[in-house]
Amino acid sequence: MKRRTTQITAKSNITSYVEINLTVLKHNAALLKERVPDGIKTMAVVKANAYGHGAALVAHALSGSVTALGVASVEEAINIRNSGVILPILVFAPPRAGNISDYKTYNLVATVGSFYELELMSSSMSFHIEFDTGMGRLGFSPNEWPELLQKLNKSELKPSGVMTHFATADAPGSDKVNVQLQLFNKLLEDMGSWKQGKVIHASNSGGLLYYPEAAFSMVRFGIAVYGFSPSAVESISGLKPVLSWKSCVSVCKPLKKGETVSYEANWSAPQDGWLVVVPVGYADGIRRGLSNKIEMSVAGKRLKQVGNITMDYTMLYSNEPVETGEEVVILGENAMMADEWAELLDTIPYEILCGIHPKIERRPVS
Length: 366
Hints:
Elements: E1 16-21, H1 22-33, E2 41-45, H2 47-52, H3 55-62, E3 68-71, H4 74-82, E4 89-91, H5 100-105, E5 109-112, H6 115-120, E6 126-130, H7 145-153, E7 161-163, H8 175-191, E8 199-201, H9 205-210, E9 218-221, E10 243-248, E11 251-255, E12 273-278, E13 295-298, E14 301-306, E15 314-318, E16 327-331, H10 338-345, H11 349-354, E17 362-365
Parallel strand pairs: 1-17, 2-3, 2-9, 3-4, 5-6, 6-7, 7-8
Antiparallel strand pairs: 1-10, 10-16, 11-12, 12-15, 13-14, 13-16, 14-15
């Protein structure tokens, strides 16, 4: 077997790194844009370090493909701005008195969902008004629109957008989405001419893919741009995972039949073989609940993970020896994918991707 060497060397302190395939990222963005009606704006959601992919890296790569970015916090937005990105950035988190100056300094767009937040705005600030049509989290109630309109008319504030967020858009044919959409459409109708010139948006990835009638004037690309369908039961043809997580073989040593591996000794070798130790564990983002359930790829060959995953190490079992320093693909490429890990843990790929520790370097590849 031809040896596949990794970029991690014996002299390096790096134990793993994440590759972000920018060609695939742009392919996914282009595929999604084919579903967006002409004239509709597009937002790439890059919160949570771009779902674990590296926020600044993704923001730069998609700057020519989307018209805006969405982040969870002011801190995320500042980091992206400081990297040189000039696209409009919408901050989803409620603004607070302590960070209003940052919105102005870094030219950020706020999300306002309460009268308290509205009082923090000034005439020089751009902000979108969020309405809670059924997500049950943040935003004005649609019933508060008359009072809100009254306050806006008495002020010099000029909202630049109106938004809501679907709770069940990852489920095609959801009655909940239809109820939310009816509420939002009724609200927009009540707004009359006031809404003219405003950016109106509701759809995340699921909304875009399964509810095209909810496109309004902007759609938000989330999990789909990173290569995963928002629905576990309905895949989207052509989407490709962007991320690959790689490490190397730290140790390979002989293992006798019956010998146990790792804490609690809950796995023993079925026959003589080789123990392959990878210097990455749950402190890096490989969930302990995946112990004895997953496979990783070593030099292109799938090997079973054995024994409990530990804080700093994960063990594999091989029928033949492998060389120290051999490349290990933990996640992606010819190893397992984030949605496969998610299924084993009864969770969603978002959590798997976001769980890769931010200390791990994200490296762009084409």
